[in-house]
Amino acid sequence: MDIFSIIKLICGLTFFLFGMKVMSGDLEKLAGGKLESVLKKVTEKPVISILMGMVITVAVQSSSAVAVMLVGLVNSGIMQFSQTTFVLFGANIGTTLTSWILALSGLQGDAVWIKMLKPENFSPIFAFVGVLFAMFSKKEKRKSVGTVLVGFSVLMYGMVFMTQAVSPIAQNENFTNIMVKFSNPFLGLLLGMVVTAVLQSSAASIGILQALTLTGGISFSIAAPIVMGQNIGTCITGLLSAIGTEPKAKRVPAIHTLIKVLGAGVCLALFEAIRLIFRPAIFEAAATPWGVAVIHSLYNIVTTLVLMPFAKPLTKLTEKLVPEQETDKKNARTYAPDELLLQSPSVAVRECEGYTKKMCETAKQMLITSFSQIGYYDKQTAKWIDRQEEKLDAYEDALGTYLIKLSSYAVSESDSRKITRMLHAIGDFERLGDHALNILDSAKELSEKALVFSDDAQEALTVITDALIEIITLTANCYHKNDKQTATRVEPLEQVIDNLTDRARADHIDRLKQGDCSIEQGFVFTDMLTNFERISDHCSNVAATLIEVGHNEFDTHRYLNEIKHGDAGFDAIFNEYQEKYAI
Q1: Measured distance between the N- and C-terminal CA atoms of the chain, rounded to whole angstroms
Q2: What's the average model confidence in pLDDT over 489-495?
Q3: Checking CA distances to 397, which of 50, 114, 217, 491 falls within 20 to 30 Å?
Q4: What is the distance between the alpha carbons of residues 2 and 310, in angstroms, rounded to a whole number?
């Protein structure tokens, strides 16, 4: 094996790893939010959780990626640690699909259909179709499909390069001598662990092993322990991802490693017992790519069947090995998803949506509660509003930073629009909280100075706050449901509220002139009206952004100007609200 064969081997491995990354990234894009919705349906029912783990792993083509995803979800408090055990069992089985695909490189035969199944023959076709999709398709999903096909082709050609690179060592006596040393199962196990830990990809190390089997120099008795070691080595990615996380999240890679180690112990003991007692001839026969795929699948299936009944004891053992600290409970509240979820952007986007909806609901409750304080100020309620405002500030700071980071990752067009919508919305939600606090201050001033509004002023405030409660509710509903139809009702009501505040302000000036209202009352009343206007403006911003981003545009000023001039639908809703809310 000369220097050029080594270069070709490195090139093949590089192609393989790059193709795997590209393919898994765009597969996740295609899956979109479905990954998160599947994870959130995980229950304590073993079979369902195992199936979900398999589905997710097949979708992203990496059990390590699923483990990292679970670490992030547990660290954020979205999932309980106890829910992850059976998902990991399923992920271990799902990841074996890759080895079956790679086994196509070992197909032998002269029939045309067999030749077409060989990677060097079908990969160029896949690549050509993928490039056509990626370059000429206008639909984002088709472009992603194209990228997946190209990534898959690069991956398979990497396998071809590795196979060609190792083929010269088939008759090499030194290679044979080295392989004999690995007939010791523990050395084979160690080799598999080290190579996989270095590459951080069990698929890549399995691919290398499958390529080496084509030399005919590796028997099944050597290949089996190496495969078991490779399955342990793949846990390194999850262990690295847990660095810096809370102990509850460290438990995920801990139990994943525990499952793999116990599985290797059981399977290796069973394998060696069969080899020493029955001495089946197939154990000393030359392994094949298909044989490696069979070993890989059998190992994970047997491990799952053997350890499933002990899932709860394994969970409790892991909890004892990695105990929860008091800081976990103290820092239970988070204001943005875990940064580990950035490795799964589509999941991170869905989680950010959940956090922004919490902001929206918090702002809504703060405003409605603050209205109830006008004339009925209560210190305990005021303290609650203060705490909620602090939470909104924390949400905006943490979420804004997180969303900016997330926007730099490769996300789908749909997810990119959602990030844009959220970045604009969180600012409006935080400002709504500020206005709730301002109204609370006005209510406090009224209470402390024993100021009472006139009947006319009180009636105007009641009508306007009723209208504000409706616009806030409309805004929250359309944002929670991404309902563009409901969003179109917000701007007409905003215009009605503007008219109401203008009318109330004019009436207030008349009362001042007539001496029916004091200057002190006037200042408080005017401050409230200003805040009322700003509240409706921010509601309008949220609704307009939702509509415009949904249309893949972002020019809210143009949108608002257009609907205000000659739009029959706008006029009808405006007249409806004008009649409903009149001073």
Answers
A1: 92
A2: 94
A3: 491
A4: 50
Q: Residue 389: which pLDDT band, with cuts at 50, 70 and 90?
A: very high
What b/e sequence results for 270-297 when a residue is b if at least 16 CB atoms lie within 10 Å of its CB, and e otherwise? ebeeebeeeeeeebeeebbbbbbbbbbb
Q: Which fold does the domain 348-580 belong to in CATH?
A: Methane Monooxygenase Hydroxylase; Chain G, domain 1 (1.20.58)
Q: By C-alpha distance, which of 120, 112, 72, 70 is closest to 259?
A: 70
294: its two tokens: 């069979």
CB-count exposure of residue 205 (10 Å: 0-12, 13-18, 19+): buried
User: Considering Cα of 196, then 198, then 204, then 207, what sign does the dihedral take?
Assistant: negative
Round to whole Å and give the CA distance between 105 and 138. 34
Contact yes or no for 548/555 (Cβ under 8 A): yes
Structure tokens at 290: 């298909």
Give the DSSP letter string of 171-238.
Answer: G-HHHHHHHHHTTSHHHHHHHHHHHHHHHT-HHHHHHHHHHHHTTT--BHHHHHHHHHHHHHHTTHHH
Whether 224 shows a pLDDT value over 90: the answer reads yes
pLDDT for 171 equals 63
Instruction: Report the pLDDT averaged over residues 247-259.
Output: 89
- Under a CB-based contact definition with an 8 Å cutoff, are residues 504 and 460 in contact? yes
Cα(352)–Cα(484) distance, integer angstroms: 20
Record the tokens describing residue 262, joined without a space.
Answer: 């116990």
d(CA 41, CA 458): 50
Token pair 């984002």 is found at: 140
Q: Which two three-digit tokens encode residue 300?
A: 């994970």
pLDDT at 475 over 80: yes
Please write the tens of the pLDDT for every residue from 123-136.
Answer: 899 999 999 998 88
- Kindly list the distances between the CA atom of residue 575 and the CA atoms of 498, 534, 544, 560, 578, in Å, as whole numbers in the listed order: 14, 22, 20, 17, 5
Task: Output the pTM of the full model.
Answer: 0.75
Q: Which pLDDT belongs to residue 518? A: 82
- Of the listed ranges 29-43, 54-68, 425-439, the least confidently predicted one is 29-43
Q: According to the model, what pLDDT value does residue 526 have?
A: 93
CATH 1.20.58.220 residue ranges in the chain? 348-580
pLDDT of residue 329: 47
